[in-house]
Design brief:
homotrimer; alpha/beta; Udp-n-acetylmuramoylalanyl-d-glutamate--2,6- Diaminopimelate Ligase, Chain: A, domain 1; UDP N-Acetylglucosamine Acyltransferase, domain 1; 3 domains; eleven-stranded parallel β-sheet; ten-stranded parallel β-sheet; 4 helices; 28% strand; flat
């Protein structure tokens, strides 16, 4: 897919390591795992359990820590780097495909005359930009995006096709927003009155920090009063739901299909897996790790690793155990009863 | 964000309560919680546990029931209202932002000549309206919406940007549909034939009642035979999946990421939390409340509050308990065995 | 909704069965269940438990296996077919509504001049087609779809409104992609460096086989290195999340809101229910069935039916049992202790 190529000298220089003279001109056209890499590809050892592949890989070159460098076959070039996975992450940027987009505004885009769009920004086909919008330097707004009134997108952010921002949404620098993202829809707020739901208009905003990435079809609701805030460096996967007035601290990463209900605050540098449900009005402190499919119904005030949920079994075994779960409290009482009797006997 | 302001006399009149003469002209520019309200904002006491803030709030005025009116500081104006949260819900409408939209059809919209669009409706940029569509009075169809053939949207409904209606979908009066909503995609129906899936064309419709709100990226599938029906006053949060031929009764509210499988009927005035899974072909009666992340695999024929799922613990504790769960049936048998022996001893 | 009608002779011929002479000209305008069918509709018996309706249905005709043909009332026409549900699936295609679309390209579509679009294809209003795209014979690309650079859509595929393909995505023949589908967004990959996340550019593609159907708002991420692959005949429901480098084998069907994390391989002819979570880097063999809301954290190497999760109970009962679950390991130890003592007594 990539037509780009680099010589090993360029690659070593890009990540800041050295490469032996005899290999400096070797051409690299892409990255690949050790087992499948071809003679024009660069590979890396991401875990010591793959050490065995270092001797047999067909890769043009491998990135390895010093400890395992001697395992590499003679004909394979070696780049020494303490964290090869990090090196791979950095080098992936050299090979990324970017749709050609000059700066400017596609003639099919509909731009309100009050919008301020940097000259270096690119506004693709079919985009709608409403009144009072501000779009910074080098921003790319992909095809079919809708940027609501008085929203702003700061420098170097990249909106893939079909992102929707409601009104008064602020996106920071270097954000990446994927297709289907919706920022600023109404939070779910209604007051009951005589069997009817009276809508609570959602008067707050969504504020997105710098270096935030938000995955496809993820939704972040605007605040009811006050704002929903996603701090710098937060990474959200696909199909996540973030309720109104949620705060997510710097550097926290959340995997796909997780739901965070309204007014919950999540700390910094948390890692939350997929399909987790977090109830509303909770506080989760910094550095919390939550495993997949957990249900969080109380605040978490101590850093650590948390889990809930049950792993699969065969249907037969599961059905038998599930029936007992409905009697678990009773079972515990029966055991207590036995223990009491046992004490009496002694 | 809001530039609107109202004097307290107007506000009191809007919700139908009185305000002392000396405060009638006080200007209010917005709503805020007691702790953060400024001298131009109106606040309210949503729960008696916040009573302590009434004496210290900086708000221009507070809405309070008669019982706690005496707790308010002298300089703060007082509006007596039995349900301040409901007053807040109603007053939020005064401060809501509305993107300026005159009536009419944006020149970039693509409208089939057979469509009937009320003169007072607004059709935004990039909208596509297919054959036979009917759009009522004061309807707003936001940018990038697609209205499929022979669909109809009744008076005063508001479609935010990028809502998709397939063909033959009927939306009632005063509906609010958020971005990314898809109404009328095919239900998931296939018949097996010799190891292949034969598609069952979905021949029904989606019928949406009056006063329904549907959150961002929620999907409601069309019926297979017969229709999928969302009755009046139903409120659906974001990222909900409603399967084909589901019926949801009047006034029921469902929170984010919940999935309802095909042909299930949910009663009136139910409240269903987030990430709940409801299997197909079930009946859930009126007035049922289901807590978050519950799994519903049987019909619920009695009103009440239902739950399933496990709350989080530390990973270590969880891992130990989960292992025992796989032996729970066996454990129950062991306890029974002990009880039998115990009886023999006596 | 349908204006189509067929005589019974045509219908019998379409599915390959016979119909008695006296009924050949009877006109059928649609399909319906036995209980609600009218005198112009065709019905079928999908399960023997509905046998009682055969005598009383108002349907013009019923499809039934030979065994139950004698139960049908005299005036109702009979079509004998061993698998009536399959017959219904096949006949549903006769009555499906199709939005009128000639071949050609709507003038509002924005098509890169390097794209190759078959003459028989239809490109609807507001579509964007980027550089190097190839679109095959009889393909329909619905309103507002975005087809990213160098992607391809093979013959007879149907993209409903507002589908997004990123760059270098390949879709096979006869695919059906529903509104809001996003194929090829970045997988969720970051390497940590000094408290920051370094993005791993996702360099692979998404490859979709023939006869695949993908439901509304489902997302399939592109591979990191190598590709994400959905094989022939796979059926994905709405709001599913498929992570990077996942492989799904031929004929597998997955229900709504299920999430599959990165690098997991799912075999052929599996059936996976809704709201299931499948962790990353697992292998699930052919022919596995997983019930709704299950959590899969280990590979499944034997075909069979698997489940996890707990069914709902009343909140009171649930709360008592959940508390005991947190002490389950301890409870098991107490039982072991009692057993030991009991042995000593004997």
């Amino acid at each position: 897919m990539s037509l780009k190529s680099y010589c090993l000298a360029e690659i070593a220089s890009f990540i800041g390591c050295e490469v032996d003279n005899r290999w400096q001109d070797r051409r690299i056209t892409g990255l690949a795992p050790l087992e499948t890499a071809t003679a024009e590809q660069l590979s890396f050892i991401s875990h010591s359990k793959y050490k065995k592949y270092l001797a047999t890989t067909q890769a043009a070159a491998v990135i390895t820590p010093a400890e395992t460098a001697s395992c590499v076959a003679d004909n394979t070039a070696v780049l020494i780097y303490a964290d090869p996975y990090l090196a791979y992450a950095k080098l992936s940027h050299l090979f990324a495909y970017r749709t050609a987009c000059a700066s400017g505004i596609h003639p099919s885009a509909v731009i309100d005359k009050s919008a301020k769009i940097a000259e270096s920004a690119y506004i693709a086909a079919g985009v709608v930009v409403e009144e009072g919008v501000v779009i910074g330097d080098n921003v790319v707004v992909g095809p079919g995006c809708i940027i609501g009134a008085h929203s702003s997108i700061d420098n170097d952010s990249y909106l893939h096709a079909r992102v929707t921002l409601y009104h008064h949404i602020a996106v920071g620098k270097r954000a990446v927003l994927h297709s289907g993202v919706v920022l600023g829809a109404d939070g779910f707020g209604f007051a009951p009155e005589k069997g009817q739901w009276i809508k609570i208009e959602q008067l707050g905003r969504v504020l997105i920090g710098d270096d935030v990435e938000i995955g496809a079809n993820t939704t972040v609701d605007r605040g009811a009063l006050g704002d929903t805030i996603i701090h710098n460096g937060v990474k959200l996967d696909n199909q996540i739901q973030i309720g109104h007035n949620v705060k997510i601290g710097q550097g926290t990463a959340i995997a796909g299909c997780t739901a965070v209900a309204g007014s919950t605050t999540i700390g910094r540098h948390c890692r939350i897996a997929g399909l987790v449900g977090i109830a509303g009005h909770l506080e989760i402190t910094d550095g919390v790790v939550i495993l997949g499919m957990s249900g969080v119904s109380k605040s978490i005030l101590e850093p650590g690793i948390y889990a809930s949920g049950l792993p699969i079994e065969s249907r037969e075994s599961w059905a038998r155990n599930v029936i007992q779960f409905k009697h678990l409290n009773e079972l515990a009482k029966r055991v207590t009863q036995l223990e009491k009797k046992d004490e009496l006997h002694e």
